[in-house]
UniProtKB/TrEMBL annotation:
Lineage: Eukaryota, Sar, Stramenopiles, Ochrophyta, Pelagophyceae
Keyword Signal: yes
Signal peptide range in chain numbering: 1-17
Organism: Chrysophaeum taylorii
Protein name: Coenzyme Q-binding protein COQ10 START domain-containing protein
Domain (Coenzyme Q-binding protein COQ10 START) ranges: 73-195
Length: 209
């Protein structure tokens, strides 16, 4: 929300202990690929065991990351939650407010968020170019603190692991501004992806948020 602006800081060290496969160099390319094709064999094993897997990489002040979750929630329920942008405050820890500023005829939304206890402003453009996909990018017509650039997507589809599961992928590329210290980016990044997708998991999930 992808739509998720909690991903403002998804920039750094991964949780996967195995050497990760190369992250997609372009989210425009990645979003045309089924999320499971982006995973290594080790990551698929981890996903089957824990229900989610993450990968992150930071190059200077630019971070790339994604998380894949196999959720017990039905896909239509997940989709309704994702497109209900103003409801993200109930779903995602760290999103303090969410307001849709403009709804265009083609379905594009311009939305404003306040993030973390500091209520940092973040402004996002969201599009759903096809069923199961929501693309998001920074709205440069508005003032945004902490980041110079943000783009990514959510993808929702049946899981290949079980008919009763829904596979959800959240991917993002973030460019942090110079006023944000790397240590702060690293700290937030260690929690951002799991917080953004915690609502997809069972309460007793091994990967606590």
């Amino acid at each position: 929300m992808a739509l998720v602006v909690v991903v403002l800081a998804v920039a750094v060290h991964g949780f996967v202990s195995v050497p990760p496969a190369r992250l997609p160099t372009s989210l425009n390319v990645a979003e045309r690929i089924a999320p499971q094709s982006l995973l290594s064999l080790e990551e698929e094993i981890r996903l089957g065991r824990y229900g989610s897997v993450e990968r992150q990489r930071r190059r200077g002040r630019v971070g790339e990351a994604f998380i894949v979750v196999d959720s017990a929630l039905p896909p239509d329920e997940i989709w309704r939650n994702l497109v209900d942008v103003e409801g993200w405050t109930r779903l995602m820890r760290g999103v303090r407010s969410a307001t849709v500023r403009e709804r265009r005829r083609d379905g594009t939304l311009r939305a404003g968020f306040q993030i973390t206890k500091l209520r940092l402003p973040a402004n996002i453009i969201l599009r759903a170019p096809q069923a199961g996909y929501v693309r998001f990018q920074l709205d440069n017509q508005c003032t945004n603190l902490a980041v110079d650039g943000l783009e990514g997507y959510w993808h929702v589809a049946p899981s290949p692991n079980a008919d009763s599961l829904t596979r959800v992928c959240l991917a993002a590329t973030v460019s942090a501004c110079r006023i944000v210290p790397n240590a702060a980016i690293d700290y937030v990044a260690s929690k951002a992806l799991r917080r953004a997708t915690a609502w997809l998991r069972a309460p007793d999930d091994d990967l606590a948020v």
